[in-house]
Amino acid sequence: MNAYVESVIANVKAKHSSEPEFVQTVEEVFSSLSPVVDQHPEYEKADLLNRMTEPERMFTFRVVWTDDEGKVHTNRGWRCQFNGAIGPYKGGIRFQKNVYEGIIKFLGFEQTFKNSLTGLPMGGAKGGSDFDPAGKSDAEVMRFCQSFMTALYRYIGPDCDVPAGDMGVGGREIGYLYGQYRRLKGVFENGVLTGKGLSFGGSLIRPEATGYGAVYYLLEVLKHEGETIEGKRIAISGYGNVGWGIMKKAKELGAKVTYFAGPDGYIHDPEGVNTDEKLNYILEMRAKDPMHCKPYAEKFGCEFVEGQKCWGVKDVDIYMPAATQNDVKMESAEKIAASGVKYYIEVANMPTTNDALNFLRSQKHMIVAPSKAVNAGGVGVSGLEMSQNSERISWSAEEVDAMLKKMMKNIHDVSAEAAERYGFGYDLVAGANIAGFQKVADAMMAQGLF
Ligand code: GLU
Fold first, then answer.
1. Is the CB of 104 under 6 A from ligand 1?
2. Average pLDDT for runs of 10 along the chain of length 450
3. Is CATH 3.40.50.10860 the right assignment for the domain spanning 3-189?
4. What CATH code would you report for 209-374?
5. Is 126 a catalytic residue?
6. Of 2, 100, 285, 306, which has the fewest CB atoms closer than 10 Å, so is most exposed?
7. CA dist., res. 48 & res. 392, Å (int)
């Protein structure tokens, strides 16, 4: 490994020992950069890599809200404006009990390279709260969102920082957050948030974009291998917005999701989630109780395996982890490699531990694609939402979908090309890291030291 890259990773390890997810992502991204840094000694002179690991700004804030019984609760909110070199800070907000600095920082770091890969002018950011949305009423969620935005609104804006959804933050939360922003600012600046409802500036296809984009990216990988998607069987984890989008697009293109896993176990539906009835049922089931997917098996008479993940099943062609970070550890990776399945397409942010990811990449029979490329269609369509808002127009679903498809092809192609150029062969993981890095690096080098 390049000595400068090695020293930066060591530095991050020493400085961030209480934030393992952040250390993990820095190590993953930077370990692809050795040949690039070898060719660009000026990066070390400008201490570019250490600068990239320090957020431009990160802050916490107090979020106080009252529940329906009148009891007062105090949560913590965060916003990490990681890197603004190529555009306004951009990235989602996550509401989840386990959120802390390390999660927000890792997501903000990933977002910087992901957003760069989209080809659109968006910097990297992330935010969130340790608020647990489970079991909260609409009114409680509204009061929480209003309080969250009251603390945050001075520090964001359409040309400054544009939050969006992530886990625990969907259309409902974005609506409440935007309402409060508008009320406080007294202006209709809807470019401040993406993932909005259609009646106030949301983009068609945004809710489906991450899942659809992942399948469009997969099409390019299959094309590279001389295959098509028809008849392919897919195993996924997660059946949230993203997993659902994958199911829907797969069905449309003649493939099928035959396994999906939730927090309580996994479902095996050999027919695939291939009817509107099944797709709609998943939405209903999730809305009622996001922790259990077992009711699907009861309703459609298929197998449910309690407490297990579907990693290692043999009767599929593609694995797509679409749940959350570090879902696939070494033990699962060994099962995946042993199954003989060729395609491992990451979808959730950092779903694989570094040792598991490197193990899968080293399998000669496998092709591995990284989440920061595969799931970039979500934020990519957020970028298109920003464009529509600033022009005060809305594009048709066909227009947005066509742009998304083109964007995913481009992300695949620039990644493959960057990997090839630096001697990695068809290594989409290294390629995405290098291609995402390059634009941010150029912009930072041009803008002087800070
Ligand atoms: N949270 C999503 C992501 O991980 C979307 C971010 C956005 O649209 O700004 O990329």
1. no
2. 98 98 98 98 98 98 98 98 98 98 98 98 98 96 98 98 98 98 98 98 97 98 98 97 96 98 97 97 93 97 97 98 97 98 98 98 98 98 98 98 98 98 98 98 97
3. yes
4. 3.40.50.720
5. yes
6. 306
7. 38
